[in-house]
C-alpha cells in the first residue's frame, strides 16, 4: 500500500481488487477477506476497506452475501492496462488566402464591443442568479418583446412576442422548421441558393426540390410542378444572385400558398444592408392568411459567433409548433438574450446598423470603383442592386469555372462561383464570381486588383 | 404632404403611390408624372421624388421605361389597410404548486455566481473582439481542452480535444446524433426512461424501440430481438430508476456492439452526484473498440439555462461525424465557452461540485429522514443507491396512479410517477413516485410531509 502514486488509500485498494478481478487473478466466487481482517493485515481503517468494498459492489465487481461477506463476481477477463487510445486525426491547418472573396466573415472591428461588454456587465450585476433560472422554451420575454418592437419600427411587421421563437442561429432554426414541416415534406428551394439550407433540410429527411429562378425570383410554374408543400425563400435579397422579389411574384407566391395550403419560409437574411432607399418590406407584412414563417438572425449584423436567430410564426401555426417543437428548451443562454434585448431596446442595434450601412456603402463603392477602373474592366459585367454584402461579377473568358478556381488557388485567391451554388447549373451561370466584400480591407484593394488581374489574364 | 405623421417625405410619397397602385386607384400602365413635374407640384426636391420612385421600382410597383418614365405595374388589388393581425392565444400562466416533486429545477442559489460573473468580465476585457470571430465548428479549442482535462482527472477518460464537440445542451446534441445515426435507424431506449430522449429521436425520424430493464439495466435479450443498431443508455445513474449498470452488463453491451457493429450512446446525466465512494467510471473508459459515444451537459451541475453540453466521439467515428454533422456551426456563444473553459481549468468547477455533493448529501439525508419518520413511513419503500438528485418511493395503496395524481393536483402537489416514464409500463411500476429533491427547500420539509400525509391517506 506504499507505492500508490498519490491515490487515496481506498481508491488504491479499489483499483487493485478491480484489476485482480478483471485479470482473473481473483476468480469468480472467491471469498474476499472480511473487512476487519483485511484492515488489520494492511494496517488500514475498517472504514477504508468498507468504502473500497462498497464501491466494488456498486460497480458489480463484488457480490455481497448477507452474513457471508464479499465474493468476486463473474466478469469478462481483459488486459489490466487500458488499450492505448486510438490515434486522433488532427485536421490540417486552414489554408491562408492572399485574397478571400468567398468568406462570409464580416468586419467585427466595427461592432461597438465595449458597449456590448458594458451591457453584459450591467445584466450580470442587475439580474444575478435570475440568469440561472429555467426560461420559457421560446426564449426570454424581454428579448421577444424587443424583437417584436424592432420588427414593428424597422420592418413594418405587426407581430406579438408570443409569435417569436429564439434559437441558436439559422441552422438550428432550420432543424426545428424541418420538424415542424415533417419528414418527406416536399420543400421548394431556390436554385441557385445558399447550400446549407438544403443540407440541413435534407439531413432532416425533407425532400428538397431545387426550383430555378427567373428575373423575379423562384419560378412558380416549376414550383407548382414540383408538388412542393412549402418553399424556403429569401425575397429581400437572394443569395447569391442579389435578386429582390417584386410585389407581383410575392402576391403570386401567397396565392400559391393559399391554393395549395402551402407554407412559405421567408429567410430575411441580409435584408438590413440596403444602401439606397429603405429596406424592402418583408413578404410576411403582406401575408393575410398566416402562410409565412419569417426568420432572421443577428449573425450578419452583430457577429456569426453570437449565434442568435429567431422565427416569427403566424398565429394559426402556434398550436402546431407547440406540438412539433414546443418541447425543445431554448438553446440560447439567458445572458446573451438579456444583453441583446437591451442592445435592441436602447436603440443601439439600429444605430449600429446605420453606421454599418454607411461603412459598407463606402466599402462597396470603393470595391466597385476598383473593379471598374481595373485593367480587366472591359471584360467584366457587375450585377448589383445597391444591397447586401456581395455582388455578382461575370467575366468574359474562354476558361471554365474549374480552371479559374484552380488558377485562383495557385495565386492564393479563394473565389466562389455562381455555378457552385446551383444544384442544376445552367450555362448562363458560367464565369460568374460571387464577390463577398464585407471582409475585404479597403486598404488592400490595389493588391486585390493586381491579384485578380493575374487571375483574369487569359493564358 | 402636410399630414404625414412624422414620416420622411420620400417615405410618405412612396406609401401613397404604393397604396394607390395596390387599391387600383392608379391602374396598371398609368404613366406617372415626371420626377421634375411632381417635385414642382408637391414642392419637394427632385431627389425626394427620385428616391420614392426608385424604391417603388425596386419593389416592383413601378416599371421604369428608358426615356419614357415610370408606369404603374400590374399587381393584385387588395384593401389598402392591412388586415388586423390574427389574435395570438396567450398561454395560460403556469400553475404554482405548493409542493413540486417533479421539477428538475436545481438550487441555483448555491452556484458561485459572482465568481462566474468575474470570469465573464475577465474574458470580455481580455479577449475583446476576438469573441466575435468565427469559431471552429466543434467549439472553442480552450473549452474542448478543459473538458478533456476534466474527464481525464475526474472520470478516468483518456480523450483528445479533437474528439469533443460542444453543443447547446442535451436536446441539441440528440438532434445531431440523430443525423449521425441516420433516419430509420432502430435505436434501443431504456424503458422507463427520460421521455425527451425518445421525443427528439422520434421527431428526427429514428425508429425508437423501448427495451425493458432488469436489475442490471437494459435487457440485452430484448435489445437483440429489437434489431437495434444503436442504444442510448445512462449506465451511471439511470433516470428515473436510479439503477447503476454493473460491470457484467457493461461488458455484455460492448460485446453486443462488437458483434452487431452497433453503437452505444452513453448519456452520463447526473453521474456527478454520487454521495458515497467515487463516481462510477463511464462505459466509455472500458470501450476498446470505439463503440461508445459519450455525452454530458452542465445543466445539472451549473444551471439548465446555461445550455452547454458536449459529445466525446470515438476516433474511428470522426470522419463519419464530419460528413454527417461537421457542417453545423457551433451553437454556443464564444463568451460562454471561454468562461466555462476558465471555470473548468481553474478548478472552480470541481470545487463547486464538491460543495454541491456535500449540500445535496445533507439535503438528501434530511429528506429521507423526513420520509422515514413520517406518519406514512410504514406504507412506503424507498429505493435509492446514494446517488443522483432523485429517488423512488413506492406507496402501499389501493388507488391508481391516476387517482393519486388527481388528488395531488387538488392539494397543490405535483408528483411524477414511474409508470409515466415507461412506454410499456408493468404492474410493478405502479404506485411509485419519482421524488426529485434538488429543488426541495429543507426548511419546508415539515409542510411537505404534512401535504404528503394528506395525499397518502386512503379515502
Topology:
Two copies of one chain form a homodimer.
Chain A: H1 9-23, H2 35-42, H3 46-58, E1 62-65, E2 69-72, E3 99-100, H4 113-127, H5 141-155, E4 164-167, H6 169-181, E5 186-191, H7 195-203, E6 207-214, E7 217-218, H8 220-226, E8 230-233, H9 247-260, E9 263-267, E10 292-297, E11 309-312, H10 318-325, H11 334-345, H12 348-372, E12 380-383, E13 390-395, H13 401-411, E14 413-414, E15 416-417, E16 432-436, H14 445-456
Parallel strand pairs in A: 3-14, 5-6, 5-8, 8-9, 9-10
Antiparallel strand pairs in A: 1-2, 4-11, 6-7, 10-11, 12-13, 13-16, 15-16
Q: How would you characterize the overall build of this protein?
A:
The structure is a homodimer of 459-residue chains. Helices cover 39% and strands 15% of the residues of chain A. With 459 residues, the first copy, chain A, is α/β, with parallel strands linked by helices. Chain A folds into three domains: 64 residues, Orthogonal Bundle (Arc Repressor Mutant, subunit A); 112 residues, Alpha-Beta Complex (Aspartate Aminotransferase, domain 1); 237 residues, 3-Layer(aba) Sandwich (Aspartate Aminotransferase, domain 2), CATH 3.40.640.10. An eight-stranded mixed sheet of chain A has the order 4-11-10-9-8-5-6-7, sandwiched between helices. A four-stranded antiparallel sheet of chain A has the order 12-13-16-15, with no helix packed on it. In chain A, strands 1-2 form a two-stranded antiparallel sheet. In chain A, strand 12 and strand 13 form a beta hairpin. The termini of chain A are far apart. The model of chain A has no long low-confidence stretch (mean pLDDT 92). Chains A and B meet through helix 1, helix 3, helix 4, helix 6 and helix 7 of A and helix 1, helix 3, helix 4, helix 6 and helix 7 of B.
Amino acid at each position: 500500500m506504499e507505492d500508490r502514486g498519490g491515490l487515496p488509500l481506498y481508491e488504491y485498494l479499489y483499483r487493485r481488487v478491480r484489476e485482480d478481478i478483471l485479470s482473473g487473478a481473483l476468480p469468480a466466487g472467491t471469498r474476499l477477506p472480511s473487512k476487519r481482517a483485511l484492515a488489520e493485515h494492511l494496517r488500514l481503517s475498517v472504514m477504508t476497506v468498507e468504502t473500497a468494498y462498497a464501491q466494488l459492489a456498486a460497480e458489480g465487481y463484488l457480490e455481497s452475501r448477507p452474513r457471508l461477506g464479499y465474493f468476486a463476481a463473474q466478469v469478462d477477463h481483459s488486459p489490466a492496462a487500458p488499450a492505448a487510445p486510438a490515434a486522433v486525426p488532427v485536421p490540417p491547418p486552414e489554408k491562408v488566402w492572399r485574397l478571400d472573396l468567398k468568406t462570409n466573415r464580416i468586419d467585427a472591428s466595427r461592432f461597438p464591443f465595449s458597449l456590448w461588454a458594458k451591457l453584459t456587465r450591467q445584466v450580470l450585476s442587475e439580474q444575478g442568479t435570475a440568469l440561472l433560472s429555467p426560461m420559457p422554451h421560446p426564449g426570454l420575454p424581454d428579448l421577444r418583446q424587443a424583437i417584436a418592437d424592432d420588427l414593428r419600427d424597422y420592418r413594418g411587421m405587426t407581430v406579438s412576442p408570443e409569435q417569436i421563437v429564439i434559437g441558436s442561429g439559422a441552422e438550428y432554426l432550420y432543424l426545428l422548421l424541418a420538424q415542424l414541416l415533417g419528414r418527406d415534406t416536399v420543400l421548394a428551394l431556390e436554385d441557385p441558393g445558399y447550400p446549407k439550407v438544403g443540407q440541413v433540410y435534407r439531413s432532416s429527411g425533407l425532400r428538397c426540390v431545387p426550383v430555378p429562378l427567373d428575373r423575379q425570383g423562384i419560378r412558380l410554374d416549376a414550383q407548382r410542378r414540383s408538388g412542393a408543400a412549402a418553399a424556403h425563400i429569401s425575397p429581400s435579397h437572394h443569395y447569391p444572385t442579389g435578386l429582390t422579389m417584386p410585389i407581383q411574384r410575392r402576391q403570386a407566391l401567397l396565392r400559391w400558398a393559399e391554393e395549395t395550403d402551402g407554407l412559405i419560409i421567408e429567410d430575411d437574411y441580409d435584408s438590413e444592408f440596403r444602401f439606397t432607399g429603405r429596406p424592402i418590406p418583408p413578404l410576411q407584412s403582406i401575408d393575410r392568411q398566416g402562410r409565412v414563417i419569417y426568420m432572421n438572425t443577428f449573425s450578419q449584423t452583430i457577429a456569426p459567433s453570437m449565434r442568435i436567430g429567431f422565427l416569427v410564426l403566424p398565429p394559426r401555426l402556434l398550436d402546431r409548433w407547440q406540438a412539433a417543437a414546443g418541447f425543445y428548451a431554448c438553446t440560447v443562454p439567458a445572458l446573451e438574450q438579456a444583453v441583446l434585448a437591451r442592445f435592441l431596446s436602447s436603440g443601439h442595434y439600429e444605430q449600429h446598423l446605420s453606421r454599418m450601412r454607411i461603412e459598407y456603402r463606402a466599402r462597396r463603392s470603393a470595391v466597385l470603383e476598383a473593379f471598374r477602373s481595373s485593367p480587366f474592366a472591359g471584360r467584366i459585367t457587375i450585377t448589383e442592386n445597391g444591397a447586401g454584402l456581395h455582388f455578382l461579377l461575370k467575366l468574359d473568358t474562354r476558361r471554365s469555372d474549374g480552371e479559374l478556381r484552380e488558377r485562383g488557388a495557385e495565386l492564393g485567391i479563394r473565389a466562389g462561383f455562381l455555378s457552385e451554388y446551383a444544384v442544376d447549373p445552367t450555362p448562363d451561370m458560367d464565369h460568374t464570381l460571387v464577390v463577398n466584400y464585407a471582409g475585404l480591407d479597403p486598404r488592400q484593394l490595389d493588391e486585390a486588383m493586381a491579384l485578380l488581374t493575374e487571375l483574369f489574364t487569359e493564358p
